[in-house]
Amino acid sequence: MAEYSLNNRGLTPPQPMIRTLQKLDEMEKGDRLTINNDRQPMFLYPELDERGYSYETSQLPDGSFQIIITK
């Protein structure tokens, strides 16, 4: 299992979602991706559900969001 991370802060939609999905496409089953976004990625969640990925979201003290996605 490999661990990856993406800092999507400062990007305007839909760039964070595009970058996240592209990285997930490159990963192997069981790999984990941690992303940091300025906003909660509401449009990303249905895509993750459709693809069968699990994820956990937490809000960080600065108001941004960290999402850990397991492929």
Can you tell me about this structure?
By secondary structure, the protein is of the alpha+beta class. The chain contains 2 helices and 4 strands; from the N terminus they run βαβαββ. Strand 3 and strand 4 form a beta hairpin. The mean pLDDT is about 95.
Number of strand elements = 4
**Unreliable runs, pLDDT <50, ≥5 residues?**
none
> What would you give as the CATH superfamily?
TusA-like domain
| Relative strand content | 25-35%
* Rg calculated over all Cα atoms: 11 Å
Shape: globular
The strands making up the biggest β-sheet line up spatially as: 1-2-4-3
CATH class: Alpha Beta
Task: Assign the CATH architecture.
Answer: 2-Layer Sandwich
| Cα end-to-end separation | 10 Å
Largest β-sheet summary: 4 strands, mixed
Report the average pLDDT across residues.
97
- Helix and strand composition category: alpha+beta
**Topology as a string of helices (H) and strands (E):** EHEHEE
Output the number of helix runs.
Answer: 2
Number of domains: 1
The percent range for helix content is 25-40%
CATH topology call: Translation Initiation Factor IF3
Pfam family, one: DUF2249
Which helices and strands occur, and which strands form pairs?
Elements: E1 3-7, H1 15-26, E2 32-37, H2 44-51, E3 54-59, E4 65-70
InterPro entries: DUF2249, TusA-like_sf
Pfam family, one: DUF2249
Domain DUF2249: 6-71
